Amino acid sequence: MSSIADNVGTVTRRIQKATLNAGREAGSVRLLAVSKTRPASDIRAAHEAGQIAFGENYLQEALEKIDALSDLADLEWHFIGPIQSNKTRQIAQAFHWVHSVDRLKIARRLSEQREGAETPLNICLQVNLNEEASKAGCLLADVPGLAREILALPNICLRGLMAIPDPDQSEADLKASFQKLADALDNLRRDNPDAQSLDTLSMGMSGDLEIAIDAGATWVRVGTALFGARASP
Ligand SMILES: *Cc1c(COP(=O)(O)O)cnc(C)c1O
């Protein structure tokens, strides 16, 4: 077994245990394998171990891997990086999910450019929970208004919220940050009772997935624990 296959097993068991400890239904948390900077061969190894969903941050790099792996029909591609508006067409056409939508202009373009596809593009609204100047994401206060406008767009399906909380917080503060995102999703569901699609909280990474699952995460985005440390750019 390759070490990537071992790691898929280890992370999957961490997720199962955290799901059980949180009193949540088995299978309610999915693993998104974050493969940025990793070669296509690493993705192939993870896929052989049963991993289906992969997250990428850089469009050009992702498109090359999507092409190189087109023989694997069941791969599910998630875009999780910052989005420039001149890149939306390729994102709308090559991916199944986008976790990092943080403004209406981007959502409108993705919707227009998804037209003609068989399925809508699943999207999450990224929230800058700790209001860090260096980070993408809308403010928590803007979520209700943005969500209302995005829910009205065709060709994209608003699934929920995503965040990357400041990792240098205490465990208690991190927990409170994840809980804030969960509360924001509850409020959205209450305010938009017809929006059956709102079922997703994309939060938690290699170091904090247990805390995120306890707060209600449905996707955890894991890179390092699967593929090892990335070279710093
Ligand atoms: C890189 C990245 C991850 C994975 O982080 P790890 O700490 O390596 O697990 C998750 N989410 C986003 C948005 C990322 O850019």
Structural notes for this entry:
The two termini are 30 Å apart. The chain has an eight-stranded parallel beta sheet. 41% of the residues lie in helices and 17% in strands. The mean pLDDT is 96. The chain has nine helices and eight strands. The protein is globular. It has one domain: Alpha-Beta Barrel (TIM Barrel), CATH 3.20.20.10. The protein is of the alpha/beta class. Helix 4 packs across helix 5. Strand 3 (76-79), helix 4 and strand 4 form a beta-alpha-beta unit. The longest helix has 21 residues, at 171-191. The structure holds pyridoxal-5'-phosphate. Pyridoxal-5'-phosphate binds at residues 34, 36, 57, 80, 164, 205-207, 221-225. Pyridoxal 5'-phosphate (PLP)-binding protein, which is involved in PLP homeostasis. GO terms for molecular function: pyridoxal phosphate binding.
Structural class: alpha/beta
Largest beta sheet, briefly?
8 strands, parallel
Poorly predicted residue ranges: none
Number of helices: 9
Q: Going by CATH, what is the homologous superfamily?
A: Alanine racemase
Radius of gyration: 17 Å
Strand order of the largest sheet: 7-6-5-4-3-2-1-8
The overall pLDDT, averaged over residues, is 96
Domain count:
1
